[in-house]
Amino acid sequence: MVELEARIDRALRRVIDPDLGRSIVELGMVRGLAWNAEKQVVSLTLQLTTPACPLKGHFEREIQGRLTEELGEGWRAEVTFSAQTVGGGTVLLPNVKNLLLVGSGKGGVGKSTVAVNLAVALAQQGARVGLLDADIYGPSVPILLGLEHAKPQVVQQEGRPLLVPLFKYGVHVMSLGFLVPPGQATPWRGPMASNTLRQLLVETQWPELDYLIVDMPPGTGDVQLTLAQQFRPQGALIVTTPQQVAVADAEKALTMFQMPLVQVPVLGVVENMSYFWTPELPERRFYLFGRGGGVHLAEKYGVPFLGEIPLLEEIVLRSDQGVPPALSEGTPLSEAYHHLAGEVARTLSRLAYASAPSP
Q1: Residue 60 near residue 73, CB atoms below 8 Å
Q2: Quick one: average pLDDT of 158-165?
Q3: From CA 189, how far away is CA 193, in angstroms rounded?
Q4: CATH of range 2-83; options 3.30.540.10, 3.30.300.130, 3.40.190.10, 1.10.10.10
């Protein structure tokens, strides 16, 4: 029995997490390990680093393969999954494990659409997700989620009023757009905008969240610095289109996050509106805004390129209806957003473990 236990342990120590470069045993991912020699079954629960982990199939194949190598062809693995998202809350946001900023440097590149669909995709993959619309001057998240006329409730907690985020498509949502009449401008100077955003963050009753995604306003000013310096986000995602005029401003946003006084890890660059595609011409891609801008930006600064999101009629229709395309199954848009969600989750996990000492 002792020998069998040692052989199972040896097999599992050869299963390596490809993102973290360490074995699942070293990382403490193996839980509830049991075996039945008569039935030749090894059962275990693998605690993933994120509910949105795209590597479940990889781990199942690797565990089965290593056990077969060690114990023989008759043995089989029964693997179930749980998740414990890595990351850490702050004093200001103790319930939030990972604060992720989505920025672009300029408007009109689909940043809000990417933020909304990223949040929905992460939620569909099992994560607890919040979304803050920090675009103070032009909040569009209420429209994108079909919440234009919704109003958050106010509750008292320890003697102070807190806003209760709205809940739609598995995502907890807060936006200034819920608090001001539709069409009303918010002509605020930088300090007032920054203070309002800070209040929205800390005076919202966020539940326990694996990810809180912040849809940033365009630019590199007071609001961005307030978020980066006071809340210490776990990462930032840069959205651009292939067009050089968009890439130039996205570069400013990227370099701002890398400044010594800011130091927010850039998870990568995602290229929106990369190409137009139509089912009538499935073999053709039309590069309306140029080609390769996002890839070149990522390569220039040594950050990951996280993928291309096509420009399709579906995104216009569904967004105006308040139904994010990430909710669809098997469409090019949905697949692109779910791929992005997986890459973001993996990158955040990798960053969280990067400085952790080996056991």
Answers
A1: no
A2: 92
A3: 6
A4: 3.30.300.130
